[in-house]
Amino acid sequence: PAVQPLAGLKLMLTAGPTREALDPVRYISNHSSGKMGFALAAAARALGADVTLVSGPVSLATPAGVQRINVESAQNMYDAVMAGIDVQHIFIACAAVADYAPKIVASHKIKKTSADNMVVELTKNPDIVAAVAALQQKPFTVGFAAETRDVEKYALDKLKRKNLDMIAANDVSGSDRGFNSDQNALSVFWQGGLQHLPLADKTGLAEQLLTLIAKRYHDTH
Ligand code: C5P
C-alpha cells in the first residue's frame, strides 16, 4: 500500500503450535495451523514493518521479506523471543502455546507395558506474552484469546491480567472460523475501547488488525 504506517518499526510475532516432547518420537501439541500468524506477518511487512516471525512447526511458506525463526517447544519459543525482544517496537503473540509440557522427557522411546493405564506428569510452561508485557522496556504488546464462550469477559480479564496493550479475541466455537479455517472474525479490545472485525479471510482480517495496531501504537507513542 502507498501508506505504510509501520515503516521504521520492528515487529516480532509468534505463530503456530508448540510441540512438547514426551520421548524422542512423541509429543503433545494442538491443531493450530499458523495461518493467522503468517497472514499477520505478511500484512505487517506490507505496512512497512521489519518483521521477525517466531514459528512453531507448521507447513506454511515464509512470507516474502519476513525473517523467520523456527522453534519446537514453548521453552524454545520463549528463548527465541527473549533473545530478540529488546529491539522490538511491537510484539504480537499469535501462537497457540502449550500450557503444560511433560515434566520428564524420556531419553529413549517409552515402552508399552502390561498396565492398562499410564500417568504422564505435566509442568507449566512459561507464559511468553506475559513475560514480554512484564519487561521494563515493554514493546506494544498484543495477545490473542481463543474462547468458546463469554469471549468478551475472558478477553478483558486477559488484557488486564497479562498487562497487554491490546487483545484480539476469536470465538472458536464455530467451524467456519479460527484454527484450521481460512476465515476468522475478531473482537479487539484495549483499555477504553473495542472494535469488532467481522468474518473475513485471514489475509484481509490481518490487514485490518495491523492497521488498528498501528493506529493504537501511534496514539500511545
Ligand atoms: O491464557 P491464554 O493461553 O488463553 O492466552 C492466550 C494468549 O497468550 C495468546 O496471545 C498466546 O499466544 C499467549 N500465550 C503465550 N505463552 C503461553 C500461553 C499463551 O504467549 N505459554
Automatic annotation (TrEMBL):
Cofactor: Mg(2+); FMN
Location of region: Phosphopantothenate--cysteine ligase: 11-221
Molecular function per GO: FMN binding; metal ion binding; phosphopantothenate--cysteine ligase activity; phosphopantothenoylcysteine decarboxylase activity
Keywords annotated in UniProt: Decarboxylase, Flavoprotein, FMN, Ligase, Lyase, Magnesium, Metal-binding, Multifunctional enzyme
Cofactor note: Binds 1 FMN per subunit.
Bilayer-crossing regions: none
Pathway(s) of this molecule: Cofactor biosynthesis; coenzyme A biosynthesis; CoA from (R)-pantothenate: step 3/5; Cofactor biosynthesis; coenzyme A biosynthesis; CoA from (R)-pantothenate: step 2/5
Annotated residues for binding of CTP: 99, 109, 126-129, 144, 158, 162
EC annotation from Swiss-Prot or TrEMBL: 4.1.1.36, 6.3.2.5
Domain DNA/pantothenate metabolism flavoprotein C-terminal: 6-215
UniProt GO BP: coenzyme A biosynthetic process; pantothenate catabolic process
Catalytic activity: (R)-4'-phosphopantothenate + L-cysteine + CTP = N-[(R)-4-phosphopantothenoyl]-L-cysteine + CMP + diphosphate + H(+); N-[(R)-4-phosphopantothenoyl]-L-cysteine + H(+) = (R)-4'-phosphopantetheine + CO2
UniProt superkingdom: Bacteria
One term under GO cellular component: phosphopantothenoylcysteine decarboxylase complex
Physiological role: Catalyzes two steps in the biosynthesis of coenzyme A. In the first step cysteine is conjugated to 4'-phosphopantothenate to form 4-phosphopantothenoylcysteine, in the latter compound is decarboxylated to form 4'-phosphopantotheine. Catalyzes two sequential steps in the biosynthesis of coenzyme A. In the first step cysteine is conjugated to 4'-phosphopantothenate to form 4-phosphopantothenoylcysteine. In the second step the latter compound is decarboxylated to form 4'-phosphopantotheine.
Sequence similarity: In the C-terminal section; belongs to the PPC synthetase family. In the N-terminal section; belongs to the HFCD (homo-oligomeric flavin containing Cys decarboxylase) superfamily.
Protein name as it appears in the record: Coenzyme A biosynthesis bifunctional protein CoaBC
Annotated organism of origin: Oceanimonas baumannii
Gene field: coaBC
